[in-house]
Inverse folding.
């Protein structure tokens, strides 16, 4: 499969659309063991967690949360319904993610990949060792 190379050089912070393109490229290249859980995954980019999420997750600061996986069978974090009524959703919070990017100095592609893999793998109950292995595998080609 040909991979499209995304080259991002920023003179201004990446827009929500930039992050969505980057995150979609990451999702297309997920490790196989994780990819099989993500067939109906919807990706959303939001600036910050909403007030309800902040309250439910007992956040002291909205910058604490960079990503959130919500299962279609989940009513709110930690509370599952018996019937799935929506697709699974992965939300990346742009401002906290950009803040983390500035603080770490990591390549944005690598950081977004790590965040996505960690968030999804934790929710699908992969072990910490499996998550470390998935995030440590070098990305083939450029994202």
């Amino acid at each position: 499969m040909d991979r499209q190379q995304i080259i991002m050089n920023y003179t201004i912070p990446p827009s929500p659309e930039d992050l969505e393109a980057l995150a979609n490229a990451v999702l297309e290249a997920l490790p196989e063991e994780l990819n099989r859980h993500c067939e109906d995954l919807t990706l959303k980019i939001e600036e910050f967690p909403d007030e309800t999420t902040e309250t439910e997750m007992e956040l002291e600061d909205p910058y604490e949360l960079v990503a959130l996986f919500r299962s279609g069978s989940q009513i709110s974090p930690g509370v599952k319904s018996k019937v799935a009524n929506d697709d699974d959703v992965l939300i990346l919070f742009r401002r906290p993610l950009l803040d983390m990017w500035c603080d770490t100095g990591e390549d944005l592609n690598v950081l977004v990949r790590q965040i996505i893999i960690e968030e999804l793998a934790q929710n699908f109950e992969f072990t910490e060792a499996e998550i470390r292995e998935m995030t440590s595998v070098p990305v083939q080609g450029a994202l």
Summary: The mean pLDDT is 84. Residues 16-136 form a domain with the Zincin-like fold (CATH 3.30.2010.20).
